[in-house]
Amino acid sequence: MNALCRLLLANLLLAAALALHAETLQIVDDAGRVVRLAIPVQRIVTLAPHLAELVFAAGAGNRLVGASAHSDHPPAVAKLPVVGGPGRLDLERILLLKPDLVLAWGSGGQQLDVARLTALGIPVLVTEPQRLEDIARHIELIGRLAGTGYEAMRAAFQVREALRGLQNRYAGRAPVRVFYEIWHTPLMTVNGRHIISEAITLCGGRNVFADLAPLTPTVTMEALLAADPEVIVVSGERAQRDRLLAQWRGASRPVAAARGHIYFADADLMHRATPRMIDGIRQLCQDLEQARH
């Protein structure tokens, strides 16, 4: 029996032992898959950085035993074993960690990894944050699975209250046409189904490429000039802020560049569907408000 087979057998025995002392739950995940698992789960592995954050937000950080590459918040996550990232998942390490739940990200290109883990008998729950409400929903779901429902409900309530406060503050503001840049060469943005687009709408903005079909479409400069946004929001790492903004400054078109309405969005906040996204949205709303004056 090779090492992988021994690990698989050990995981199956552990799952069977836990099932004797736990409630069996059957749920449908965001990919429409039926997942059966014993709750409360004791050992969680996450396959995307935002999922590790959500586990901690749900009060289940002590159940997290492994996380994907680039998981760095809260700081305690950085001390956990790294199980790889998209396209390079370390199945053997995951088996060694003996998880009774793996959390995956639907848009993270992990379909093959999900299939492999499921075939090995490991429960995998696929999550897909499409709306801002999903941040709170996923926190509550993790809390339910980990037996930390009270902490999760409290965190979810805080997310919903913060979003409601922003909605009340910026509802009725004059609409502003926004181009949100997630990559510069080639130009890439988000469509109207993306969670970031909902954040733009929450702030009173109008995503100029909302009608495009791909979730993260590539657009030409000609298309951007035709859309003529009043605001350009450039996203990226904080350390690259000045360089990213400089790529647009001094341009005479579109109107956003001509008027100096170029703003920066911290991708660490805006590109992770976690409670910290509220901070990114709050800054976005302030930027759009400044552009109105």
From TrEMBL:
<dbReference type="InterPro" id="IPR002491">
    <property type="entry name" value="ABC_transptr_periplasmic_BD"/>
</dbReference>
<keyword id="KW-0732">Signal</keyword>
<feature type="signal peptide">
    <location>
        <begin position="1"/>
        <end position="22"/>
    </location>
</feature>
<feature type="domain" description="Fe/B12 periplasmic-binding">
    <location>
        <begin position="43"/>
        <end position="292"/>
    </location>
</feature>
<dbReference type="Pfam" id="PF01497">
    <property type="entry name" value="Peripla_BP_2"/>
</dbReference>
<protein>
    <submittedName>
        <fullName>Cobalamin-binding protein</fullName>
    </submittedName>
</protein>
<dbReference type="InterPro" id="IPR054828">
    <property type="entry name" value="Vit_B12_bind_prot"/>
</dbReference>
<dbReference type="InterPro" id="IPR050902">
    <property type="entry name" value="ABC_Transporter_SBP"/>
</dbReference>
